[in-house]
Amino acid sequence: MSNPKNSLPKGKTxxxxxxxxxxTGAPAPLLQVRDLATEFATRSGVARAxxxxxxxxxxxxxxxxxxxxGSGKSVTGxxxxxxxxxxxxxxxxxxxxxxxxxxxxxxxxxxxxxGRRIAMVFQDPMxxxxxxxxxxxxxxxxxxxxxxxxxxxxxxxxxQALGKVGIPDPERRLEAYPHELSGGMRQRVAIAIAFLNQPxxxxxxxxxxxxDVSIQAQILVEMKTxxxxxxxxxxxxxxxxxxxxxxxxxxLVMYAGRLIEEGPTAEVLRRPRHPYTQGLIDSLPSRAAPGxxxxxxxxxxxxxxxxxxxxxFRERCAHATAICSTTPAQTIDSPRTWSxxxxxxxxxxxxxxL
Length: 354
Known about the structure:
four-stranded antiparallel beta sheet, 12 strands, about 350 residues, Rossmann fold, alpha/beta
């Protein structure tokens, strides 16, 4: 059961608490997501892929958004950028970037912002790179969309961007076509294009999933360097908790369209509050004993068109009781938050001061 002293006082909402904090002069979040809801119409009914999601991202911060396939993490990223098309639609909530509301913006307004203040790197670079244009031609298009640089400036910026993402001999790669590059090179090009116009926020949707482990590690190092040098904020979406733990300073854990746990990466991994988060940690290959099968979370993610009442994880949870058929309130024990009737590691954390 949630510790009452850790919950907000009666009548005090998370939003009101944030207003109090901002009035003290603390920096405002770069990105504020509040009660975001996104639905898709399907033959089986309405699937609420994102269900009341709220979180902040601050300037220069790397945030990891993790969960199984179908948890809603990618749809959250697309919703922030306004990339939801029919049969999907954003049905509620707010997304503010640098104080500017994005939900309800026209397509033209969003196109003006994308690439300039907010950008996205997708999982498959071949779905975003044009196969009939050279790397330089595609980088030129990105630069011309948000300014009028001359040819010399564009070439210099393109070469610098390719060099920063670890592409060798960038002069030669500028004239290459996507099919002439390896998967790792193509993804580096996609990352370089995302950073070209110095956006404030970049959202990465599992950009290293299809790459060799050694290439993944190289790109992670390059991304951390890029973020540090450019002062960019990063939201890294992934099902791979091990990868995110290397990169992100803060973790957001999603399940069935909802955020169920949030906190500093080291603390969440050391003492998770939600049983689902514990299940993700236990299923990491590094946790398995030699010669033993990997630990798996029993069951599967419920269909978003027919979620069980209360906690969506309760039918897979070893700690579930009758109360779990009611929706758990969010407990805030800064810098940690979670939504669970039976949170883990509460007494251990209290004794250690976490």
